[in-house]
Amino acid sequence: MNKLYFLGAITLMVLGCKDKKTEDKVVTEPAYYSEPYRPQFHFSPEANWMNDPNGLVYQDGVYHLFYQYYPDDTVWGPMHWGHAVSKDLVRWEHKPIALYPDEHGLIFSGSAVVDSQNTSGFAKNGETPLVAIFTYHDMDGEKAGRTDFQTQGIAYTLDNGDTWTKFKGNPVIGNEGIKDFRDPKVTWHEASKRWILTLVAGDHAQFYTSPNLKDWTLTGEFGKDYGAHGGVWECPDLFPLQVDGENESKWVLIISINPGAPNGGSGTQYFIGDFDGKTFTTDQKEPKWIDYGTDNYAGVTYNNEPNGDRIFIGWMSNWQYARDTPTKKWRSSMTVPRKLTLQKIGMDYYLTNFPISGIDGLASSELTKSWEVGSSETATQTINGLDQSSIQLKTASKDFSIVYGNSLGEKVVLTLNAGRNQFLVDRSASGKIDFQEDFGNKTHVAPLQLLNGDPVEMEILLDKSSMEVFINGGLLVMTEQVFPNEPYNSITVENNDPEANVIVESIKKMESIW
Ligand code: FRU
């Protein structure tokens, strides 16, 4: 429901009010998307539970965002695919639920492709099918203690996402007894003129190919001895990416893992290597992390992006406490869409992730003038509207903290400490933290070595209850939820470096997209 409809509905309800009770209810109902902690420039569902982004795909002027959705409660439950669309990846329009559970099970995570050559044969009259490939989770099978309760199914739409038909031959990939067997990501592989599918099977990824999205052949696997294994692998993605500034392209394999992330619970690692149409190989044994914060999980990228960009969206939460966060009407939101680039540093490859330029377009009025904090100085400014802002800063300081605070003394402390080779986020006094023991119990740490001692450019997006910190174009990223009891309205820069200044170039108000 958009704002106008909602206000209209309220007016009608008020006019039609018969008794005092209804009137009270109407008056206390908050305006559209203005509940406490409601993100203003991030995607969140109108009501109830959301987790992973699913089926990220572009077709005919429309970016689709499907997502794991339970429409009947604010905690996880039988999964559907919720649906929203956007023309620019910035402003979203809610659509009805796209996929409902059926006789094969609940609809877990997956992807979507534009079948422009109608390889599936789903189009009969020259339409272009949009095909979703997802995991069926058979709850009864799981309860009965079976191990084959996750299979892969497909569904299609011929009207760009409005009406969906499940394939009669589902499941298209059965299960031979692997308990965690899910989250298929499909893309077209031009070199072999085949569809390729990547899914996770417990502690590794598997690769399949198909000519028609219905018949799949297992061609390879990767990962048993690679990367992090503190929990099960989930939500893979596989795509080629040009190395920035080089005439070289590499394949990127993204794997979420829960638990086992560097700062606890859920996180997303990646590998850079090669893919020959059948399997993925790399000499990278150690995991690299998309985000060192605790709130960027299950992220995947868009298929068929019209500008050839690789755009990533993650679920801004963590299974450690996702069910317990202190929001009432809905639970959780997505990261801003982020553009991925591949950088070669020395002999090694790194993936950066940084907000798409459309998000900058939301940064409107300056909330304060640019300011400079000298060496060994501390300065504070009170800034109304800080809780929905974008900050850009630049510094060669090797030791400084940025503190967001409020009049209750609540604060989030971001610290760069080159001596300890660390970037740290401390949300232990950020506001509500005791809804779950892991939320505020330790400082989150990211290693600094990648930055190479260079001056730092930092962008921080704060949107009511989330903070996204991007250092040096997204080479180092921390995404964190925060739940202050009053909006943060002051910022302190504590510069402990005896030689370098910290320059806060701008603090801008971000417009609401709702
Ligand atoms: C990741 C995940 C997926 C699964 C989905 C279920 O957060 O566990 O592996 O498909 O959530 O909602």
TrEMBL record:
<keyword id="KW-0378">Hydrolase</keyword>
<dbReference type="InterPro" id="IPR018053">
    <property type="entry name" value="Glyco_hydro_32_AS"/>
</dbReference>
<keyword id="KW-0326">Glycosidase</keyword>
<dbReference type="InterPro" id="IPR023296">
    <property type="entry name" value="Glyco_hydro_beta-prop_sf"/>
</dbReference>
<dbReference type="GO" id="GO:0004575">
    <property type="term" value="F:sucrose alpha-glucosidase activity"/>
</dbReference>
<protein>
    <submittedName>
        <fullName>Glycoside hydrolase family 32 protein</fullName>
    </submittedName>
</protein>
<dbReference type="InterPro" id="IPR013148">
    <property type="entry name" value="Glyco_hydro_32_N"/>
</dbReference>
<dbReference type="InterPro" id="IPR013189">
    <property type="entry name" value="Glyco_hydro_32_C"/>
</dbReference>
<dbReference type="InterPro" id="IPR001362">
    <property type="entry name" value="Glyco_hydro_32"/>
</dbReference>
<dbReference type="Pfam" id="PF00251">
    <property type="entry name" value="Glyco_hydro_32N"/>
</dbReference>
<dbReference type="InterPro" id="IPR013320">
    <property type="entry name" value="ConA-like_dom_sf"/>
</dbReference>
<dbReference type="Pfam" id="PF08244">
    <property type="entry name" value="Glyco_hydro_32C"/>
</dbReference>
<feature type="domain" description="Glycosyl hydrolase family 32 C-terminal">
    <location>
        <begin position="385"/>
        <end position="506"/>
    </location>
</feature>
<dbReference type="GO" id="GO:0005987">
    <property type="term" value="P:sucrose catabolic process"/>
</dbReference>
<comment type="similarity">
    <text>Belongs to the glycosyl hydrolase 32 family.</text>
</comment>
<dbReference type="GO" id="GO:0005737">
    <property type="term" value="C:cytoplasm"/>
</dbReference>
<feature type="domain" description="Glycosyl hydrolase family 32 N-terminal">
    <location>
        <begin position="42"/>
        <end position="344"/>
    </location>
</feature>
